[in-house]
Amino acid sequence: MRPDMPAENVDHNAEAARLERTAGLYPEDAEHLLLQAAAHRELTGDRPGATALYDRLLSSAEPLENPQLVRALKASNLWEYDHEAEARAIIDGIRASAPRDPAPWLIVAESLESHDELEPAEETFTQGLRLLLGDAAEPPKSTHPLLYGRHRVRRMLGAAHDEWDTLADTLHSSPVSLDELHDPKRVWSLGSDNPAELQAEIGRLRAELGAYREALSRPFPVAVLHWPASELHELLSAYPALAAEYSSHTEHQATIEKSLRELAASGTPNLGIVTGTVPSYEAFAASEGTTPEDTTLLPQYATTLAARGRATTWPPERGAVCWCGRDRVYDECHGQAG
Questions:
Q1: C-alpha angle 15-20-22 in degrees, rounded to nearest 5
Q2: Which one of 183, 295, 313, 333 is CB 3.0 to 4.6 Å from 328, fit for a cystine?
Q3: Residue 240 has pLDDT above 60, yes or no
């Protein structure tokens, strides 16, 4: 489902069931698929069903990529159907574990905020930012929502701007400033009996909604297929006919970077890289009723991996390691000029 698809055009129960079936077919992608299924369950109001999916992931014998994200989503969901005590216990556990990913911090802080726990929400936003930003000269893009959320909560609390609030203002690119967007009076105006006040607020909300929809309606990622050295060796050993596609691993990686730069230069947005494995590729070929040596299968395989949430964004953020798997910063590896 595209993120900008109108909710009324989606059968959330059917979509959840489809995703659960797909997770059974692709257990290596179960975490991503079941989290989507849980979101659809929540949208239908089936919050116990969503909790069951979160519990299914947390009790799985397979290690999760982001167990704290699953716990955060579970806590947020639990609080929405009168399981506040359990939700608070999970939130306390997440804060104590100090995850290095911004997403769990954002989810639990916003959950506290949505239940008018503004001071604990501000503390959570601040704790997460203090851990994740450290002495970084430029905050990673993934931490921007934490800065915006902290700004919003502090605005509601009437707190004076500090350095992080100023930084949030600087990073915010919408025509509507954060101070105006987070003004508590705007919330009150929505309940006004004055038609002029209501009309003015509706106009502002429409402008903001347009910006949000633009951000959400990015096209599906154009994903380029990457084979790690060991996987490429295994692939070519099993299927020598593919050697015409991959002369060497070094050339394969150079081609990936070149292709992505050409796509970016042509204006193609939302580019990504997916990493292939031989067993996964063989299973995909079997599902398509063809042989892995069919070269037309390679781009289809890449698109399928991207559809299953396996794409990583290209180019990496500043200071991030290179996509190729070497323990080097991208700008000093494949990201070097030229």
A1: 95
A2: 333
A3: yes
